[in-house]
Design a protein that fits this description.
alpha+beta; about 150 residues; six-stranded antiparallel β-sheet; about 25% helix; disordered N terminus
Length: about 150
């Protein structure tokens, strides 16, 4: 049931609308300060306004915050290909931490590398919005579970 990028314009718009609503209605995204900044088929940019609760005792973004952001960016990039027809479930996530960040906002760009019937692959880069410098880079493997099965 894999989707090919470049499907009909109406289908693509319906999937993008689904992703917008999915993110906007997510209590987790709201608590994390996450919102979709840009979106196209196979690509999502998430913006996260760092909250004081996301800082560790040293005043830098806690290491556990970045995988959540990475997962959201890659998962939603895949969701742009499947819309409401399937659940996108994280199977594996690898993240390389490149530099600490202490506040402001982060931008995470998630991209689909390959989308298959059951497994799909994504990549992500998280940048400090103010400096544009990369904070983390990663990859993920996702299980595609058709809804209604």
């Amino acid at each position: 049931m894999g989707r090919e990028m470049g499907s009909s314009e109406n289908e693509a718009e319906a999937r993008l609308a689904y992703v917008r609503e999915f993110a906007a209605s997510s209590p987790y995204y709201q608590a994390m300060g996450m919102s979709i900044a840009e979106m196209a088929e196979g690509r999502v940019v998430i913006r996260v306004e760092i909250q004081p609760s996301q800082l560790n005792a040293d005043g830098i973004v806690h290491g556990g915050v970045l995988p959540a952001i990475a997962d959201g960016a890659m998962g939603n990039a895949l969701r742009t290909l499947y819309g409401a027809s399937a659940q996108v479930l994280t199977a594996e996530l690898h993240l390389h931490y490149l530099r600490p960040v202490s506040g402001g906002a982060l931008i995470a760009e998630g991209r689909v590398v390959r989308s298959g019937r059951r497994l799909s692959f994504g990549e992500v880069e998280i940048r400090d919005e103010a400096s544009g410098k990369a904070v983390a880079k990663g990859t993920g493997i996702f299980v595609i579970e058709p809804k209604g099965s």
